[in-house]
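User: Structure tokens for both sequences below?

Assistant:
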Amino acid sequence: MTEVLLNLKYIRRPFKSLSILLLAFFTFQAFSWVFAFEKNVSIVKKLGGPLSYIWILFRGGILPEISTLIIVLMLLNIYHEACQIKRLELTPKKVFKYEVKILPVMLIAFFLFNPVTQTVRYLLVEFPSYNLDLYLENYLQGTYNIKLYFTYLIPVLIMGYGAVNGSLIIDIMEQRRQQKKRTSETPDPFQSLTPQPGAYLTHLKVKSTYGETIIAVQDCFWFETEDRYYYAIHPTGRFAITKTMNELEAELNPEMFFRTKRNCIINLSFVASYSYWENGKYSIRMQTPNNDETDMPRARLQDFKNRLVRFSAQEVEYLPPKSEII
């Protein structure tokens, strides 16, 4: 597995990330008690004991920060959509680059979530005695300062990177689970690539200028039609055949052969690469002596990619015998 599809489970479902919020909150509280122990003890005494202190923390600390979490995750989701970050290549360099790329979101998030979080905190803490001047001075204008920015920075980084990397780990595990499931559903690794007797077409009667012969279909590069005649492209030449494209598509092993368009069926084991060509078409380069290419319409691209992935995922020792053409 070289890349993973990013589903962003924890980012798109904020309430699944509440545990990350609690982790960030308690991390902040731990630092607060380590570096200001005596001050926190006096606050506990002033509030009337541990229970009152815990209630204040819950009402004025945890509940308002739910809005912080939601806004941070919303910004990350918008950023992923805007930058078209859909997949991630699983290499140290690419993962590190991905982590750095999302850092600016966390650095500017404070200026967006702060008024919302402070408003929620004001409504919860000051209930029922609300005062507009107190709200503006202590909860809005007074909270935009360097000290509070850096106070929030560590919890925001924990929430943001916790949700991102938690989602990434789940996506990796889910993709591996699906691959393992597909593998377990095919106990014989040769089954999908090796045509079984009576199941798929294995040999084909062909004609050339020298007469008739029989060739193995797995050695053919591709099959094509031209001027209502049908041909098999083989390492030893181009042979005329009697079977139509529809008949070949029905009789050939679908895990090994793919119909790119109406007049062409290619052997996936000879595909070298594919790329966008022009006018909504893609070019497929084949592993032939002349590096031949064939085109394919965009409508067939997704099916082709899925079939190619399934074919490549067959990690077996057997490969269809190929003539030494390279």
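Moving on to the next sequence.
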Amino acid sequence: MPALTFNANNVAPSTGFDAIPAGKYQAVISQSSIKATRNGAGSYLELTFDIIDGEYKGRKLWSRLNIENPSQKAVAVAQSELSAICHAVGVLELFQSEQLHDLPMTITVRCVKNPDTDEMSNEIKGYAAPQTATPVRKAQAAPPPVASNNTAPWKR
């Protein structure tokens, strides 16, 4: 039997994670790996997204892109999503998935109910360039009207 030196009094218990609300979030890809599909007939690129600001900063979400699959439709969907990610972060020629790491983007998240368990989970359904706060410009006062040469001198 393996020996452990762990005292649960020193660590707060995990409370689990509920799905975050649907919406747009600023995120980065923090990890990526290629894994075999369950049936062994293909592979997928698993991407780990970290939310980088707001109330849910630090939360993780995952996306799995079928890069090899007997279904060409599944591969086409994955390629389209990967293209959206690449465009969102400005990496248009991708050679290693690590090129996508730590580059901010806006992800669109939706909530999905698992029909077997009735639990809510999240899906990433969109990728876009990061949203940046645009500075608010103060309205400038209109310049005083300029008298034209056709105006009588006493009206200038």
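User: Anything stand out in the second?

Assistant: Residues 20-128 form a domain with the OB fold (Dihydrolipoamide Acetyltransferase, E2P) fold (CATH 2.40.50).
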